[in-house]
Amino acid sequence: MAIQEVRVQTVPYLEDIKGKYLLHEIQNTLHITSITGLVTAKVYRLEGISAQQAEFLTRHLLAEEVFQIYTVNEAIIKDADKLVEVAFKPGVMNPETGSILKAAADLGITEIVAADSSYEYGFYGTLTDAETEFILTGLLVNETVEMVVTEKPATLIIKGKPGGTRVIPIRNMDDAALLELSNDNLFLNIDEMRAIRSYFINLDRDPTDCEIETLAQTWSEHCGHKTFKATIMVDGQAKKPFYQRLRESTGQANHPLVLSAFEDDSGVMHFYDGLALCGKVETHNSPSAIEPYGGAMTGSGGVFRDIMGTGTGAKVIASTDMFCFAPPDLPDTDVPPGCLHPHYLLRRVVDGVRDYGNRMGIPTNNGSVHFHRDFRAKPSVIVGAYGLIPAADAGKRRPVGGDLAVAIGGRTGRDGIHGATFSSGEMTSRTIDVNASAVQIGHAIEEKRMSDALLRAREEKLIRAITDCGAGGFASAFGEMGEDTGVRIYLDRVPLKYQGLAPWEIWLSESQERMGLAVAPKHMERLAAICREHNVEVTVIGEFTGTGKLELFYHDEPVGELTMEFLHHGLPERVMTAAPQEHSLPVSEPDLPGDWEQVCTQVMQHLNVCSKEPIVRMYDHGVQGSNALPPFSGIAGDAPNDAVVIAPVPGQKYGAVIAHGLNPVLNSIDPYAGSIWAATEAVANAVASGANPDELVLIDNFIWPYPDEASLFDLDRAVDACVDFVKATSMPFISGKDSLSSTYRAPDGLVLKIPPVLCISCFGRVADVAQTISTDFKRPGSIIALVGQRDVQQMGGSAYFDITGATSPRVPLINPDQLIATLRSLHRANHSGAVLACHDISEGGLLAALAEMCLGGDMGAAVSLPANERTDYSLFNETAGCFLVELADQAQLEELFKNVPHIILGCTTAEQNMSVTQANKNIFNISTARLFTAWQKPMQEVFGGC
Amino acid sequence: MLNINQSKPRICILRTDGTNCDQETAYAFNKSGGESHLVHVNQLRSSAAKLSDYQILAVPGGFSYGDDIHSGKVLSVELASFLNEQLRRFVDEGKLVLGICNGFQVLVRTGLLPWGELGSIKATLMQNDSGHFECRWTNLLIEQNNCVFTKGLAGTVVQYQAAHGEGKFYTNETTLQKIEQARQVVFRYAGAASGQPTQDYPQNPNGSLHAIAGICDRTGRVLGLMPHPERFVETFHHPNWRRASLGEPHGMPLFRNAVVYAAQTGAGC
């Protein structure tokens, strides 16, 4: 059928904003100076209508004459030196297509059979072909999902003949053949492959592809968490599995507010008025490494669905994002083969988080970005979500026999096949080529309307059980839901995006924005009506049975049958050996600085210290009208707070607090101390903002290199740190996730271990958001006190050591028993109303914390450092769990903090100047403006001004 | 204030796929004495709900239909195609219409703003000059005119949060002059210190012509604005409530004016 092409452009006398910023980026980031101009045009292709109809649609829908011009079936950029069009590859869902079809139908044009949109770029200047190619590969085209359009497509319709179901002759395979089958496809080890072979030898038949793929998915590291469930041998002693240790510590803490820990799609704690808060934090490293925009989007979408799949369905009320990247100015030659440049990765991941969270209407209001060279092969992309649910609707729900198995949300395509197994494998230079199908573009509106419909269905009590279709798709969702009962699925009933999927692909597809429900038959009609009203597709695809089996059918043909017992309990238990590796970091201390101003500005503009405001400004952190402590505040709105506080129930004064901590540098040097630091940082951020340490819960995310003996030893230390932290503080972990694939293997055999990351998130409740604290100094003449215990000699891993090239294995080692006393004391002080401002000390040390407080209050500070501390260490030590506190007078300080370590540092001043003395000797004076400029510069250079 | 004998004015908070500021907008109206109902556009299309049952129509913020093609465009086409008559009657009967953020984009793209000409687009909200989405607090100077929503506020500077990627008000010179001469500009982005209209980024977060943040129609009963008054109806909504007293939350008078007007005129019910 004919395809009509419409091209739309901004009128020539107005600035083409998209073109302007692309040009800037090509000239300044890619350093191509032969390009002198760039214009863009949007291209729409409409199949099945006439040119006249296309003209009509363009005038009423696609172009607005106030600021745009258009052509139909004719070029619009005519004089460019080079013209390139970039479109999504066929099969990659373009979220805009649905809207084009809907609006055209609303305008009376219903004959369109397919539609697509894309962009054209006209380049001006004497670009060489090589330069054009560089612009395309470095900026405009991600070959995982996009392509350059070289000729008008003959059709936009994706056709295909469904593949059949293959039988895999596993019974006759020797170990070598089993491993070959596993590699690049199933990612199972030889013991696991042998277990599958035995199972089918006993059944006296060979497995279908559906069966073997189901097993590979369910048994993948990503879904099965085999390492965390393994017995760990250390020094010949067997230690309990990580999973068990963490859960037992939660049980022993016996926290009265915990409602559901480690059993549902998220962890749940009691809130107020019969409501509960839930939290979940996920990683999305592997997809984000090869397609950062789609990867980050689907990461956000997935973690939101974890909240939507908690109990009988929670409302998502906040989102968080924590990233680790290589520095954005990394030389191109240092980027490993098969990997993308961190400058591109960072910006595209931010774009993805922005576009998903903003469109879903979820405030993204807590996060951080960490930089280290060793993330150049693979970033760590961590996204969190928090939700609200009536406590009575929380808690893991199970289907009962006779319930309908229901698919809701988006359609199923060939998206993300092998995502679960892919996430579990190491990344190699071949990853981009082999696993291209593992990434897709998210469709936030699909998920938003599904969420609207599901909340309504929950209120009407129509849902028995619900879970997210994440990694592993329906196989994971229904395989897990049916564990106790058994489930029968008719794969041909699943609505598809396009024809041509084999049964196993339908079953394993990871198309986003889908969830699985168990619904009693009597509620199905009402559920369907709600979905219709919300433009959401809902389909009965099977039923829960009482057979204890997973049964798969395709057009009445059986294509798979496994016992739930084997699927969920047939995985051989692992015993893994951990052995210490040398962490031999030499001690090399810096000289005392000669030029304090220079060293202070260097610390402030260190990538791990500098302001991340340009990122936060692109996230809608105010939607839902709940913010009570935003990510940035202060006179000019540019001073960072430690945590976020939201009041999620309109008209109620109670709130939720959300914070986090991570420090991959410390984790690399000392996994135990680094992990305690991360947990401390998370809770210190929350308590500094006004949270009660006795009403906080934790979430762990271990992002670790592939668990060889050395990495496993470090992981063991990190888990022990978590357990010790819980014992000392009684703050329990109620949710967690591990991702053990932070290893990169280059074609030349070089193995790069990405720094281990333990991200600790914490959330809790506050009775009155009016009793929370911001970081900005409130008035001149206040007392500034330092509260908390620190040994300033513990400088290893600090930003200061990084800029001076110094090294030391002595990292901050926090005593959790001391910490909890400090936190309780600080909370009482905050609660009393005496504390005017409070900021925790973290990266950049006392200097950075003090500077940020001055920035918020538009004032200065005069401080005197303890005489017995080395001056630079006193300023730049990064011991977490220490706080700068602004108080009206000294008497308050002594009264409020009498039982915990505290000293007076100095006072706030009206002049925008920071003066530092020690033992009555002036060390330096520095204009705060100078510090702020340095602190704001790095991210402004990456993202533009703010 | 409201006479307690009167029934509360009913507000239709219009929802569709991607609407996401509906609940806080409903809360702001309810807090001001109104009775908000969340109404999906499909309910209006199917006649399960009728616009005529309401005195105020609010089109809240969000990303209706993903802001595909243009922001607010697909919803605008839907309203103009299926609810044209209902909308026209609603406005003609002297009722109030408020569009916030995506809702403003919708009102402009249906033609309800600036001149109540459904189906005729006279102005637009373009991509921000910064090239990206911006979430930041803005100072807004309220102009003197007949706008019902800002009665008694002329000359004051209020603070609302802006959160949008396509908020640059743009139209041709003729239309701009007509809008100015008819005193249809209601809100202008203002400098933090000067309180005067500004083109400077980031106080003017998108590069809007004449620093326009919101306009009304000639009757003063249809208002659209980019920043979010519903995000400042509690003291703690403001980022700096801990520093200084800001008086009544700045969004409240806008919603109260609307509810009081609807209660007093009792139009159509």
Description:
The complex is a heterodimer of chains A (946) and B (269). With 946 residues, chain A is α+β, with helices and mostly antiparallel strands. Among the domains of chain A are: 146 residues, Phosphoribosylformylglycinamidine synthase subunit PurS (Mth169, Chain: A, 2-Layer Sandwich); 282 residues, 60s Ribosomal Protein L30, Chain: A; 174 residues, PurM-like C-terminal domain (Phosphoribosyl-aminoimidazole Synthetase, Chain A, domain 2). Chain A is 34% helix and 25% strand. In chain A, strands 17-19-15-20-18-21-22 form a 7-stranded mixed beta sheet. In chain A, a hairpin with a 6-residue loop joins strand 9 and strand 10. The longest helix of chain A has 21 residues. In chain A, 59% of the residues are buried. A 9-stranded mixed beta sheet of chain B has the order 2-1-3-4-11-10-9-6-7. Chain B is globular and about 50 Å long. Chain B has 269 residues and is α/β, with parallel strands linked by helices. In chain B, a hairpin with a 5-residue loop joins strand 10 and strand 11. Chain B has one domain: Rossmann fold. At the A-B interface, helix 1, helix 2, helix 3, helix 12 and helix 15 of A face helix 1, helix 3 and strand 6 of B.
Q: Describe the biggest sheet of chain B?
A: 9 strands, mixed
Poorly predicted spans of chain A: 429-436
Strand order in the largest sheet of chain A: 17-19-15-20-18-21-22
User: Superfamily at the CATH H level of the domain at 255-291 and 314-388 and 574-582 and 612-772 in chain A?
Assistant: PurM-like, N-terminal domain
| Rg of chain B, Å, rounded | 17 Å
Strand content of chain B: 15-25%
**What's the CATH topology label of the domain at 255-291 and 314-388 and 574-582 and 612-772 in chain A?**
60s Ribosomal Protein L30, Chain: A
General shape of chain A: globular
**CATH fold name of chain B:** Rossmann fold
The largest contact between protein chains, plus residue counts on each side, is: A-B, 71 and 66 residues
Binned strand content of chain A? 25-35%
Quaternary state of this entry equals: heterodimer
Structural class of chain B: alpha/beta
How many angstroms does the end-to-end distance of chain A come to? 48 Å
Please write the CATH class name of chain B. Alpha Beta
Number of domains in the coordinates of chain B? 1
Estimate percent helicity of chain A.
25-40%
Radius of gyration of chain A: 28 Å
